Amino acid sequence: MATYAIGDLQGCFDELQDLLELIRFDPARDRLWFTGDLVNRGPQSLACLRFVRELGDAAVSVLGNHELHLLAISNGQTQYLHDGDTLDDILTAADGAELLHWLRRLPLIHRDEQSGFTMLHAGLPPQWRLEQAMEYAAEVEQALRGPDYRDYFANMYGNEPDCWSPALTGWERLRFITNCLTRIRYCSGAGVLDLQEKGVCGAPGMLPWFEIPDRKTLSQKLIFGHWAALRDQPRDYGRYNVYPLDTGCVWGGELLALRLHDGEYFRVPSRQGVGFGERAPSTPDKASLRRRRQLTEQPVVVPGKTP
Predict the structure, then answer these.
(1) What are phi and psi of 15, to 5 degrees?
(2) For residues 253 and 231, what is the distance between their CA atoms, to the nearest angstrom?
(3) Dihedral sign, CA of 297, 302, 304, 307?
(4) If pLDDT is split at 50, 70 and 90, which confidence band does 274 have?
(5) How far apart are CA 89 and CA 100, in angstroms?
(6) Highest averaged pLDDT of the listed ranges 106-120, 188-202, 287-301
(7) Which of 63, 119, 164, 177 has its Cα between 20 and 30 A from that of 157?
(8) How far apart are CA 133 and CA 156, in angstroms?
(9) Contact present, 116 and 221 (Cβ < 8 Å)
(10) What is the distance between the alpha carbons of residues 303 and 198, in angstroms, rounded to a whole number?
């Protein structure tokens, strides 16, 4: 039995199949971890969701910012749609509501005590211990799974507050936790977030979250995705005890897997043939827009289950 952690798919289903063939994946024996962002920007988001869901106990995925974006759009926050979104196949699918219901129940952090690895989508602020991060993640998960989950999506977007305080409450508290776990790249030594910069050179006073001196999770083995630009910035990641796995497959890079028990990497080339920023915008058709409106008007539930 082997466990493989796989970087952001973003709808690159064919490349996932190439990778699974390379590692000779057997769902009866092996396990897959996904760093989130299964969907969006790539061509086959629906196929990716269906495949991972159908793996059942053979796979686990954490929520990424693109999953949260999809859930928000499907629950009425259509003002945040982007030209490059490729989510319409999910929103118009016959099983779309069931897939969205499943997504809302995915974790934000996955911890395996036996291997000592922890997986999350983006990162952590320097002042959080891992135990705290898992407690804070559970607060957001409770909001996502509770009866008032639509209120969460109505208050999710935004870059403020930009620094943690235990005194934070309500939506500001949940928004900060969400931004750390699914969006963080750069922050200051004091834990102030910079959610604007996506490249490999941060603003003055800002460092990649994992390079902050005295980070309280330095002793933890952390797997994350989200930051495709790191593929072009070699670092001694072992020094920071982190394992970044997003190598920009959707942008023409690679799809990367890490075998946990021996640290071996496996990679396959992208089939997308595009570079950063080159993907053409997609324009939703009338059927897609109607389906979005239907999803916002009806509870996203699986028959026989409460939301």
Answers:
(1) -65, -35
(2) 9
(3) negative
(4) low
(5) 12
(6) 106-120
(7) 119
(8) 18
(9) yes
(10) 40
